[in-house]
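Invent a record, attention on tokens:
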Amino acid sequence: MWQRIKTAVILVIIVGIAMFTSKTPILFIPLLAIGVTIAAHEWTKLMPRWRHPPVFVLMVLAITLLSLWLKVTWVFWWIASLIIWLMALSWVSKFPTHTNWYGRKLGLMGVIILTASITAMFYLWQLSAWWLLYVFLLVWCADSGAYFVGRKFGRRKMSPNVSPNKSMEGLAGGVATGLVVVIVISVFKLQLTGIALIAFVALSVVTILASVLGDLFESMLKRRAGVKDSGTFLPGHGGILDRIDSLLSAIPIFALGFWLVQYLELMTA
């Protein structure tokens, strides 16, 4: 337990410094590059045996860095990842009966998912580091609420073949906990009303649900690959993917929704 706490504190400090120390990406982009490199390496462990793992890692890093520079590609990556997450709904529900998704195609999925999440993080950070922090808090609070409510009241299993400990009661508790964060931020901080409030709450709820799917998807991958953790980079926590699995799905979907709202506002201005 103490090891988990120490690792979490150190991680929060490092990420916080990179996010808030400077408005230039001098610290944030290197952090993203290191993170996606480690995550890509861990992804190779979840795929069928990859002949040359370093090649995949370098490919993901190169594509991600190029995409950060080519802003015009960001929405493409987010939409592509959304398509994958929509398909993942079916994969999770049919596991382990149907596992046609498991194969070399996981390489392409890894490129899309990791690039989409990194570009989405950078997009939100560029708008304001507080927007990125909002998604972090939203997902983490929802995850904590789901854990405690599920542990106390969980009865109906959400996906027993993928994650036996997750329940529908826990999901409801997670959404409720997340909604507390949403209401506090939207009403008292952003002071939203009317359609803007409805849109923000709806996007945040979809983001919470997406985070649950990301968690289930990684659990499914680990079960299919026969591994307990994606890695050992974070003592007491496992790998990078084990800690950001919920964010991999949540952040691109929130970024896409946020971008769409802004685009529509510009179109109707």
About this structure: The chain has a mean pLDDT of 91. Strands lie at 157-159, 163-167. The radius of gyration is 18 Å.
